[in-house]
Amino acid sequence: MYENSIIGIEPANLMKEAQKLKDEGYRIVQICANKVNGFELSYSFDREHDMKTLRMIIAEEDEVMSISHIFFPAFLYENEMKDLFGIKITNLVLDFNGNLYKLAQKTPWNPQN
Fold first, then answer.
1. Long-range CB contacts (within 8 A, 24+) of 35-43
2. What pLDDT shows up at residue 113?
3. Helices in the chain by DSSP H: which ranges?
4. pTM, entire model
5. Over the stretch 29-46, which tens digit does the pLDDT of each residue have?
6. How many Å apart are CA 61 and CA 1, to the nearest integer?
């Protein structure tokens, strides 16, 4: 039977929880941002069809530590969140500084930013 669970976390626990999943053999599947009152960030991981999603809500001005030191491919998702939403991601392994995409408008999914 395949499992799919969403685990609510505090932003301060993201690194610890991501490392725990890495140690348990999970791989990064996707990172998704959603504009709510602030941002909802969902980090999904898989191990043998067992999907776990770490989910947190942050304020627009909050900074989030990159998990790219734990899961290298996360740098793409995290740069995308910076480009499209203006989310402040710190300590990226590869930081495109808001230039991963060529955009007609800065942070198009959060235009007041």
1. 35/85, 35/109, 35/110, 38/62, 39/85, 39/87, 41/81, 41/87, 42/6, 43/14, 43/18, 43/67, 43/74
2. 58
3. 14-23, 74-85
4. 0.92
5. 999 999 999 999 999 999
6. 40
Angle at 59 between CA 57 and CA 63, to 5 degrees: 95
Give me the CATH topology for the region 3-90.
Beta Polymerase; domain 2 (3.30.460)
Tokens of 101: 């995409």
What Rg, from alpha-carbon coordinates, does the chain have?
14
Is the pLDDT at 11 greater than 80? The verdict is: yes
The domains of the chain are located at 3-90
Q: Which two tokens stand for residue 27?
A: 């791989």
CB contact at 8 A, 3 and 50: yes
Distance CA 93, CA 25 (A): 21
